[in-house]
Amino acid sequence: MSCSPMDIDNDLRLAEKLKYVREMPQEQLLQLVNQEIPSEKLPSVYLEQLDDADRSTAYRACMLAWIVTERTQVPRELQLRAFLATFHGHDSLISAGTGSGKTLVIILSLLLDNPAEHSLSITISPLKRLQATQAEDMNKRYQIPTVAINEDTPRNDEFWN
After folding, report:
1. Distance linking the first and last C-alpha atoms of the chain
2. pLDDT in tens, the chain (161 residues)
3. Three-state SS for 25?
4. Is residue 86 a contact partner of residue 113, using CB atoms and an 8 Å limit?
5. CA pair distance 19, 143, nearest whole angstrom
6. Contacts of 116 (CB under 8 A, 6+ apart)
7. pTM assigned to the model
8. Is residue 104 within a helix (H) or strand (E), and if so which, with residue range?
């Protein structure tokens, strides 16, 4: 029997698919990852070095990324390392070039924690265009409620309520 959230119902909303992955038992999660994600896309050597709890969390993050990117992307080792550090409450600093995947680390933490319930993340970006792009991606692609705040942000009460 298939346990893929993609196979349950083609009309299943993204939020429901993500909830399904967040809550599924570890054994079922591993089966889903093996079924859905091509092995060459996973950082398998790194994943095998993790303890069971971190491996399960990393696989869950991989599956969430796979779903929200419409089966095109899973986190690379660097992204999983930074994500797990954040997941365990440690500070994490990634210094890398544009387009290297730093934003995915933030997204994974929010997706795993279910942004619809209680997460708040503040990301500081010096470029308005990057702010706008990230806010648009978060809202549309990942369905994470996001707003870019800068000098162009409305100051009226209607916007903030």
Report:
1. 46
2. 445 545 544 446 887 888 899 999 999 999 999 999 999 999 999 999 999 999 999 999 999 999 988 899 999 999 999 999 989 989 888 888 888 888 888 888 888 876 556 666 777 778 888 888 888 888 888 778 888 888 888 888 887 77
3. coil
4. no
5. 13
6. 15, 145
7. 0.80
8. helix 102-112
